[in-house]
Amino acid sequence: MTDDSENTLYFDLPAGRVTIRLRPDLAPSHVTRIKELVRQGFYDGTPFHRVMEGFMAQGGDPKGTGTGGSGQKLKGEFSKEPFKRGTCGMARTQDPNSADSQFFICLADCDFLTGSYTVWGEVLDGMDAVDALKKAPAGRQSGAVDDPDHLQKATVAADA
């Protein structure tokens, strides 16, 4: 793989930096929108409001409630790319074309999501920092975190 700093993101989390390879080959519209939001500073300071042990860590909501977004819905870009540990996907409602700014990073293999959610990237380095995010109490169905950790800064590597 060649160096592609335009399609690499850095997420600075409390426990360290996460390096994410963007996948415009799978989700060109989502990758374009995520880079726009990153460059606007939209994600800086947003909480990982929903983190479920053995499943995923969800962030990208400026409200921190799971109800916020940037106000721009994206058409689903579904693929056969498997959701595995480190896969970055877009959160959405039951409407397949309702993704906005919220995303998740799989903490484990999540094959049941494959083909139903958009894959936009994969963690190349720093999964230990994702694993270290504060999690919801065991048994909490919603996955809501009481005192969530925040994405301190998101950067497109080309801009770093």
From TrEMBL:
The keyword NAD does not apply. One of its GO terms (molecular function) is peptidyl-prolyl cis-trans isomerase activity. It comes from the Bacteria. Residues 139-160 are annotated as: Disordered. The keyword Isomerase applies. Pfam families: Pro_isomerase. InterPro entries: Cyclophilin-like_dom_sf, Cyclophilin-type_PPIase, Cyclophilin-type_PPIase_CS, Cyclophilin-type_PPIase_dom, Cyclophilin_A-like. PROSITE patterns: CSA_PPIASE_1 (PS00170), CSA_PPIASE_2 (PS50072). It catalyses: [protein]-peptidylproline (omega=180) = [protein]-peptidylproline (omega=0). Its EC number is 5.2.1.8. Residues 14-148 form the PPIase cyclophilin-type domain. GO terms for biological process: protein folding. SUPFAM superfamilies: Cyclophilin-like (SSF50891). Keywords: Isomerase, Rotamase. Belongs to the cyclophilin-type PPIase family. PPIases accelerate the folding of proteins. It catalyzes the cis-trans isomerization of proline imidic peptide bonds in oligopeptides. PANTHER family: PEPTIDYL-PROLYL CIS-TRANS ISOMERASE-RELATED, PEPTIDYLPROLYL ISOMERASE DOMAIN AND WD REPEAT-CONTAINING PROTEIN 1. This is Peptidyl-prolyl cis-trans isomerase.
